[in-house]
Amino acid sequence: MTDYVGVLGKKAPQRTGVERVVNAPLPTVYGKFQAVGYLDHDRGDEQVALVYGDIAADDVLVRLHSECLTGDAFGSQHCECGDQLDAALRAVVKEGSGIVVYLRGHEGRGIGLLAKLRAMALQAEGLDTVEANLALGLPVDSRDYGVAAGIFHDLGVNSVRLMSNNPRKREALLRHGIEVTETVPLLITPCESNITYLRTKRERLDHHLPHLDAVAHLS
């Protein structure tokens, strides 16, 4: 995009918000989605919403899924992200309609891939996920969900049923004018590799994870 226009060389106004760029069919192992691609002019990230079926304006089943390369692509058991993405996609297909917004730029709760790997190395030495970020001089959670709300506005969605265990997602959508009529738990059975991480999310990041009480035997 050109910054300067006209013979007087005046600077053109910078675009803000999200811009829909492309809509393409995306057949998957879950079902046939529409991949709606967006450009986030505020942060420079490319974003995508996976839309299934004919979505309405109200009470749409949705998931805001933060990018997690290790979990989503590599099947890491350090977190539950890959399983949550799988469960969310299956849920909207079962529902008959819904949206999964895949939020890029959210790796490691916003600190980026390499910093996340450094934090994971510190966790292997005994720090929890919050302590590891702070030891690196990084924020505990710097994710912003305004772009997701912008995508919902563009798709004509006024209210949602949000698949999430994280109260901050609900609060962010409400701040940006999206009503959350229901919070739908997205609980994944923990394993020995991620139980400490999940307990930290519950105890220090206020995630609603009541199912952890049933697995007290895991170390």
Automatic annotation (TrEMBL):
<dbReference type="GO" id="GO:0005525">
    <property type="term" value="F:GTP binding"/>
</dbReference>
<feature type="binding site">
    <location>
        <position position="84"/>
    </location>
    <ligand>
        <name>GTP</name>
    </ligand>
</feature>
<feature type="domain" description="GTP cyclohydrolase II">
    <location>
        <begin position="19"/>
        <end position="185"/>
    </location>
</feature>
<feature type="active site" description="Proton acceptor">
    <location>
        <position position="141"/>
    </location>
</feature>
<feature type="binding site">
    <location>
        <position position="164"/>
    </location>
    <ligand>
        <name>GTP</name>
    </ligand>
</feature>
<comment type="function">
    <text>Catalyzes the conversion of GTP to 2,5-diamino-6-ribosylamino-4(3H)-pyrimidinone 5'-phosphate (DARP), formate and pyrophosphate.</text>
</comment>
<feature type="binding site">
    <location>
        <position position="129"/>
    </location>
    <ligand>
        <name>GTP</name>
    </ligand>
</feature>
<feature type="binding site">
    <location>
        <position position="68"/>
    </location>
    <ligand>
        <name>Zn(2+)</name>
    </ligand>
</feature>
<comment type="similarity">
    <text>Belongs to the GTP cyclohydrolase II family.</text>
</comment>
<keyword id="KW-0547">Nucleotide-binding</keyword>
<dbReference type="GO" id="GO:0003935">
    <property type="term" value="F:GTP cyclohydrolase II activity"/>
</dbReference>
<dbReference type="GO" id="GO:0009231">
    <property type="term" value="P:riboflavin biosynthetic process"/>
</dbReference>
<dbReference type="InterPro" id="IPR000926">
    <property type="entry name" value="RibA"/>
</dbReference>
<keyword id="KW-0686">Riboflavin biosynthesis</keyword>
<feature type="binding site">
    <location>
        <position position="169"/>
    </location>
    <ligand>
        <name>GTP</name>
    </ligand>
</feature>
<keyword id="KW-0378">Hydrolase</keyword>
<dbReference type="GO" id="GO:0005829">
    <property type="term" value="C:cytosol"/>
</dbReference>
<dbReference type="Pfam" id="PF00925">
    <property type="entry name" value="GTP_cyclohydro2"/>
</dbReference>
<comment type="similarity">
    <text>In the N-terminal section; belongs to the DHBP synthase family.</text>
</comment>
<feature type="binding site">
    <location>
        <position position="79"/>
    </location>
    <ligand>
        <name>Zn(2+)</name>
    </ligand>
</feature>
<feature type="binding site">
    <location>
        <position position="81"/>
    </location>
    <ligand>
        <name>Zn(2+)</name>
    </ligand>
</feature>
<keyword id="KW-0342">GTP-binding</keyword>
<dbReference type="GO" id="GO:0008270">
    <property type="term" value="F:zinc ion binding"/>
</dbReference>
<keyword id="KW-0479">Metal-binding</keyword>
<comment type="pathway">
    <text>Cofactor biosynthesis; riboflavin biosynthesis; 5-amino-6-(D-ribitylamino)uracil from GTP: step 1/4.</text>
</comment>
<feature type="active site" description="Nucleophile">
    <location>
        <position position="143"/>
    </location>
</feature>
<feature type="binding site">
    <location>
        <begin position="107"/>
        <end position="109"/>
    </location>
    <ligand>
        <name>GTP</name>
    </ligand>
</feature>
<keyword id="KW-0862">Zinc</keyword>
<dbReference type="InterPro" id="IPR036144">
    <property type="entry name" value="RibA-like_sf"/>
</dbReference>
<dbReference type="InterPro" id="IPR032677">
    <property type="entry name" value="GTP_cyclohydro_II"/>
</dbReference>
<feature type="binding site">
    <location>
        <begin position="63"/>
        <end position="67"/>
    </location>
    <ligand>
        <name>GTP</name>
    </ligand>
</feature>
<protein>
    <recommendedName>
        <fullName>GTP cyclohydrolase-2</fullName>
        <ecNumber>3.5.4.25</ecNumber>
    </recommendedName>
</protein>
